[in-house]
Design a protein that fits this description.
The chain is mainly α and 363 residues long. It has a domain at 104-313: MetI-like (MetI-like fold, Orthogonal Bundle), CATH 1.10.3720. 65% of the residues lie in helices and 0% in strands.
Length: 363
């Protein structure tokens, strides 16, 4: 006969089964103590985690949909703008010397494709060589300026003065200094234009060093160049590539504009002026479109190099190679305790008054 203190569903062995059975005992595996409250419902961590994995735009996460939108949106806007351009020119009967139709530009682009490719190659080579020279000079000057305030005070005004010089003033001067058949003047113009954004952004990145990192390298007896190579340059890479993306677009612009003022007649700039002087305006616009495509390609290559050189930004941190990654939302700040492999034996239930009444007397 069971005691009156035991419930109706208590096993004969006397050990009470935990509420919720085995599922309730193991339901708190992530927390290690107990199962969620009955009122949690859909707001439980498991439910919220499932929504976060499949949320933001449906199953599969919002990262892929965001990338697709980033690519599709500019394409849609560009196609719509070209369609409106064509309709406007055809409806208002705009003359080609004012604004040719996109269909006429496309016909000239197809007819002069080989010539466009050769001109784009010449301009792209000038822009690339000048970009490399300007980037290397800007990085070297920035490293020296970041180490010395005196050098920074001397180089800063010089860089600002170089940036203020217009391209149309530099190109004729360099064409008279060098041979008319040389590409050096155009490449020098590109290097001067590229130098300023690289120098300014790199100096800013090199000076944004945390005091803890500086003290750590000083305690390790690291020299100035070791400190720059191991701490300053990796931390300054986001700023460097910001200036590099700006400089990549400016390099193409400078190369095309420098070709307007004499020199070899094999680049996009010289082809644009030649076609415009012959009243072949759709052909001139075809070379302009080629210059735009060349600038876009160079800009995308600069973005690809940034993506390859900063893996911590791909991983989702974005704060630098020496900073901790942020803790995901919903995860505990402290790691949960590891559950015991074997549960301790439950204490025997206390004897009730009815059980004591039926206990036989001693002796």
């Amino acid at each position: 006969m069971t005691g009156t203190g035991a419930g109706a569903g208590t096993p004969a062995g006397g050990r009470a089964r935990p509420p919720g059975g085995r599922g309730g005992a193991r339901g708190g595996r992530g927390g290690g103590v107990a199962s969620p409250a009955p009122g949690a419902g859909a707001g439980t961590p498991a439910g919220g985690r499932a929504r976060r994995r499949g949320g933001r735009g449906g199953p599969g996460g919002g990262l892929g949909s965001g990338k697709v939108a980033t690519v599709v949106a500019p394409v849609v806007v560009g196609v719509a703008a070209i369609a409106l351009w064509e309709v406007f020119v055809q409806a208002r009967d705009v003359r080609p010397y004012l604004l040719p139709a996109p269909s006429a530009i496309w016909e000239q682009f197809r007819a002069s494709f080989d010539l466009i490719v050769d001109a784009a190659w010449a301009t792209g080579l000038n822009a690339l060589v000048g970009l490399v020279i300007g980037v290397l000079a800007g990085l070297l000057a920035a490293v020296v300026a970041a180490r010395s305030r005196i050098v920074d005070g001397m180089l800063g005004p010089v860089a600002a003065a170089m940036n203020a010089i217009p391209i149309i003033a530099l190109a004729p001067l360099f064409n008279t200094m060098f041979s008319a058949t040389s590409s050096v003047p155009r490449r020098l113009v590109v290097a001067i234009v590229v130098f300023f954004p690289i120098f300014v952004n790199t100096v800013r990145g090199l000076r944004e060093v945390q005091p803890v990192q500086r003290e750590l390298m000083r305690s390790l007896a690291a020299g100035p160049w070791a400190f720059a190579r191991m701490v300053q340059l990796p931390g300054a890479l986001p700023h460097v590539f910001t200036g590099f993306r700006l400089a990549s677009s400016l390099a193409v612009i400078a190369a095309v504009v420098a070709e307007y003022f004499g020199g070899r007649q094999n680049g996009l700039g010289s082809r644009i002026t030649a076609a415009a002087s012959n009243t072949a305006y759709p052909r001139a616009w075809a070379f302009v479109v080629a210059a735009c495509v060349l600038g876009l390609v160079v800009y995308l290559v600069a973005g690809l190099l940034e993506w390859l050189a900063t893996p911590w930004r791909r991983a989702g941190s974005g704060g630098g190679p020496l900073r901790r990654r942020p803790r995901p939302v919903g995860t505990p700040a402290v790691a949960p305790a590891v559950p015991a492999t074997a549960a301790p034996a439950a204490a025997p239930p206390p004897a009730t008054a009815s059980a004591a009444a039926h206990t036989p007397p001693d002796g």
